[in-house]
Amino acid sequence: MNSDSDLQIAGDILEVPHLLQAPRQHPVTVAEFAGLARSIAADRSQWEHLVEYDATTRWYHRLRTGPGYEVWLLSWVPGQGSGLHDHGRSSGVLTVLGGELTERTERSARVLRAGAQRVFAPGYVHEVVNDALEPAISLHVYYPGLTEMTMHAVSCAARGSERGSATAGV
Ligand SMILES: [Fe+2]
Rounded to the nearest whole angstrom, what is the distance from the C-alpha of residue 23 to the centroid of ligand 1? Predict the structure, then answer.
């Protein structure tokens, strides 16, 4: 009987490590960046002791860097928000670690609770706000690292914009 493949592996595949793909040390794909964020979110010992809340400005801390990417930890007290912005040429993964955040775009608004993730492409425009009564914490992975953040006028998000340098991404 013919088979589509004449290659079969008999025995324990783990005994032939040269056939296995070595795990990557750093993420490369969107799924791997999302996975990195989920793994950090699940291990509170990596970030919980670093979180601070600042009523005067959104607090942020660069948690990790890797080849071409950065991971930021942010806190949001009730009422704090990012303003409408894009992320220049960076793509990103936003993960809510605690509390809840509201993401608004020109077309929609969605509440993101702990564990929620949003992946966005370069040029994506949104606003993130803590509309809740409790503080919130979020994790942001940017690839490449965020070097510019363009703020957009709320009433004219697609046209009116003002260039600004990125000091704390969202
Ligand atoms: Fe953002």
Answer: 30
